[in-house]
Design brief:
28 helices, Aspartate Aminotransferase, domain 2, about 800 residues, alpha+beta, 4 domains, globular, 8-stranded mixed sheet, Aspartate Aminotransferase, domain 1, 7-stranded mixed sheet, Aminopeptidase
């Protein structure tokens, strides 16, 4: 089969960040000619600044600023030489003071990103293994890619899931010397913390376990000498721990530090830490600023600062407790996250807060799952209590307005984040427009057949009869991956006219279905022992069996915006009922900007699908006429790749297969499925084909070598075709004997016989379906680029596919 386009993680990130930029919540610039820390000017408006990561406000401390200025005047703007050869004058003083702070020798790095790049490949040996927390900082994850190129196993667990971590440790214990777990001390989005108590227990239970913490958001505002959250939880660092802290952010200078009690780890990084060895060193101004900050950290003044900030954090928590704002994590951290759910609500809320005089950050993908968008704000010593009180009051006032304008409720957001629900009186349900009526059916028994066919006749295998086939083939008697839960949605206007219609199925999808073939091949090895490995419950528009325009929307209706909003509200209710991991809306064209605008705001990510192939012109009368209507390029391919083989095969059409034929046909289908990693799905069981065989709307094009008997054992190809109301011929599945591919060009012959059969039946269209578009164009099909919109409750599956893909590339 021909290769198809696959989805790229970076493309997804760029697409979503572009949306956020267009909404005016990222890619902003301040307009101040100086900073105070308390306010910033954006778009001509002075805003209370609740977005800093300098929680103690030390970046504005006059002592630190004077030290930096003085160093520039004495030493210049930089000392451009590798630290391996010689360090500038102030470095040794900084290292001495940091060692006093931590009680351990430290390695100073230019920033934490370069520090991770220098440390991780140096301390992790080829015989070790790596486990990443799903939310550990990007700079840590990126640095682990270097280890992967050396063949070091890299796994990932769901955020702070200690049961999953222990299972991974057990799996790796027999193949790895040390097992490294990488986590943040304090996570930058929600402000939640690593479960250090549980990690201590696992360290005691598994001596192989080593712990690597990125604690840049835990620095200075907590701990003895402001040495950070992680060290405050340990007191004395054990030999299996490395901690990265920062000299920027709350510390008020620049650079980062690696801290460990393990002399071997320290020596390896100190002597050869990749970019730490070969890159330029910290500028004199940064070193001098860090020395001045270290003096503050070594004095009792740091505890006064910590207490002042802690009082303001506690005050903010107290203010929030008087509201029903959905605070995702309540603790003593100066990071706060208010969930909004859909990005449209987040954009709206952030804009309203900026208009009200407050600058806050927006938590967006990939830092959080798209549907878990929210407003992230921080409290620093710069903020005054009246600022905090005013912010919380503004949020409490504007949050329900933003929700209502984007047709979302407080409880819908709370369900998204797993928070306790409010009483109904506190979160009023959205009122459905009185001019429309929504019907959701669970079975075709309830569905108005004629009206459905008036809309969907000729569309793949989802006219009314096609839906009945799908219900029978994928019922509760099947294995879990083939049990489909159906929902049929109709929206009518006040004249009782259907203005929107679609159907949805909930079933298991493989997480790698649209990933590169190399990813699927790697995962299939693990599925030999765990068939449902890395699969998710997906609520999909249409079904895995069908392809095409599953959504009917009256594009001429004056209220089509309201209709589509009503559909998304209905989809939310179905989502709450069925609880899938993912929602997938498909198959749309790139030009559908109207739908894209709605999907972007609702938290859906665009994903590429394989090209869809259709043939619309079946009006020719002879084979020569048909050939002449092909493009010149396709005619050439037809002559070379199809026509010269036609005498070597013989085809026959039947409405039913005998038991032996069905068994052979199914084995041929499995041949194709076994090779098709480009769109990786669960193989259909033979029972689906038995239902197909008993349905008069299905027929089978059988192919044999020419000149012999047409017995089941001589079958070399089968096309499983659906006849949609004498309008559309749908070759849904194919079975092939690859031993005959070169001799008979079986696949291309099957495509040609499909064209001949559709014309003989006087059908108007052929739905050739996804993939192999190059081969299908040879017989006159047109390929159409299709996309889906995906909404995942969690980023884990997507991030895991990225981990596996990187692993296959490196190997």
């Amino acid at each position: 089969m021909a290769k198809i386009r696959h989805n790229n993680y970076i493309d997804t990130v760029v697409e979503i960040s572009r949306n956020a930029s267009e909404k005016g919540v990222v890619d902003l610039y301040t307009e101040d000619d100086h900073f105070t820390g308390r306010h910033i000017k954006v778009n001509g408006k002075d805003l209370c600044h609740f977005g800093t990561t300098g929680y103690l406000g030390l970046e504005q401390d006059i002592r630190i600023k004077k030290a930096a200025v003085d160093a520039i005047m004495r030493y210049g703007t930089q000392f451009p030489l590798s630290k391996t050869f010689i360090s500038h004058s102030a470095y040794s003083e900084l290292e001495d003071k940091l060692e006093k702070m931590y009680g351990y020798p430290v390695v100073v790095t230019k920033n934490s990103t370069l520090g991770h790049l220098g440390t991780i490949p140096t301390v992790v040996r080829d015989e070790d293994a790596i486990i990443l927390d799903q939310q550990v900082h990007w700079s840590v994850q990126n640095s682990c890619q270097i280890a992967r190129t050396r063949g070091i196993p890299v796994e990932m667990i769901k955020h702070n899931n200690m049961e999953m971590l222990e299972a991974k440790i057990k799996d790796l214990s027999s193949v790895a010397d040390k097992i490294w777990y990488f986590a943040d001390g304090v996570y930058s989005m929600y402000g939640d913390e690593a479960p250090i108590g549980r990690l201590k227990e696992l360290s005691a239970k598994y001596p192989q376990l080593c712990l690597y913490y990125d604690d840049v958001h835990g620095m200075s505002w907590v701990g003895k000498n402001g040495t950070g959250y992680v060290i405050s939880q340990y007191g004395e660092l054990p030999q299996n721990v490395i901690v990265f802290t920062t000299l920027s952010k709350t510390f008020g200078a620049s650079g980062a530090t690696m801290v460990t009690a393990n002399k071997d780890f320290y020596t390896r990084v100190k002597r050869f830490g990749g970019p730490l060895t070969f890159s330029a060193q910290l500028e004199p101004s940064s070193v001098a600023a860090a020395i001045a900050s270290a003096d503050i950290h070594l004095s009792d003044e740091i505890y006064d600062m910590q207490k002042e900030l802690a009082d303001k954090v506690a005050y903010c928590n107290a203010c929030l407790a008087k509201t029903d704002l959905p605070l995702i994590e309540e603790n003593n951290c100066p990071v706060f996250y208010i969930g909004t759910g859909a990005p449209a609500v987040g954009y709206n809320f952030v804009k309203k807060l900026m208009d009200a005089g407050f600058y806050v950050n927006m938590g967006v993908f990939p830092a959080v799952a798209v549907k878990r968008t929210g407003v992230r704000f921080t409290v620093s010593r710069h903020n005054q209590k009246e600022d905090i009180k005013a912010l919380v009051e503004a949020m409490d006032r504007l949050y329900p307005v933003a929700l209502a304008e984007e047709t979302t409720t407080k409880n819908q957001v709370r369900k998204t984040f797993g928070l306790p629900l409010l009483d109904k009186g506190q979160s009023a349900p959205i009122k459905m427009p009185a001019s429309f009526r929504v019907s959701v059916y669970k079975s075709t028994d309830e569905l108005p057949a004629k009206e459905w066919d008036d809309i969907f006749k000729g569309r793949n295998v989802f006219d009314f009869a096609g839906l009945q086939f799908l219900e029978q083939a994928f019922d509760a008697s099947q294995a879990p991956e083939h049990q489909w839960d159906f929902r049929f949605v109709l929206i009518r206007d006040k004249a009782d006219k259907i203005v929107l219609a679609t159907f949805l199925t909930k079933t298991l999808w493989k997480d790698d279905m649209l990933a590169p073939a190399s990813v699927s091949m790697a995962l299939e090895k693990k599925r030999l022992s765990d068939p449902l490995y890395h699969s998710s419950q997906v609520l999909a528009m249409g079904s895995l069996f069908t392809e095409g325009d599953h959504l009917y929307l009256d594009q001429e209706h004056p209220d089509k915006d309201a209709i589509l909003n009503l559909f998304f509200q209905t989809l939310t209710k179905i989502d709450e009922e069925l609880q899938p991991d993912v929602i997938a809306l498909r198959d749309f064209t790139l030009s559908d900007d109207f739908l894209k605008a709605h999907c972007d705001g609702q938290g859906y990510v665009k994903a590429a699908l394989p090209d869809s192939c259709v043939m619309e012109d079946l009006s020719w009368s002879t084979q020569d006429d048909y050939i002449q209507r092909l493009s010149s390029k396709s005619r050439k391919h037809f002559r070379q790749d199809i026509e010269k083989y036609t005498d070597r095969v013989q085809a026959e059409v039947t409405n039913d297969l005998c038991a032996e034929e069905l068994s052979k046909a199914y084995s041929l289908y499995r041949n194709v499925w076994d090779k098709n990693f480009d769109m990786n799905t669960f193989a259909y069981p033979q029972s689906v084909f038995e239902v197909m065989n008993a349905d008069s709307n299905w027929e089978f094009i059988k192919m044999y070598p020419a000149g012999g008997e047409k017995s089941p054992e001589r079958l070399i190809g089968v096309m499983f075709s659906y006849k949609n109301l004498n309008l559309t011929y749908v070759p849904s599945l194919i079975g092939l004997d690859y031993d005959y591919s070169d001799e008979f060009s079986v696949y291309r012959q099957m495509l040609f016989q499909t064209v001949l059969r559709a014309r003989a039946l006087d059908f108007k269209r052929i739905d050739f379906g996804f993939s192999a578009s190059f081969e299908k164009r040879k017989v006159g099909a047109e390929s159409i680029q299709k996309i889906a919109y995906i909404q995942a409750k969690d980023n884990f599956a997507m991030e895991m596919m990225e981990v596996v893909q990187n692993e296959t590339i490196s190997s």
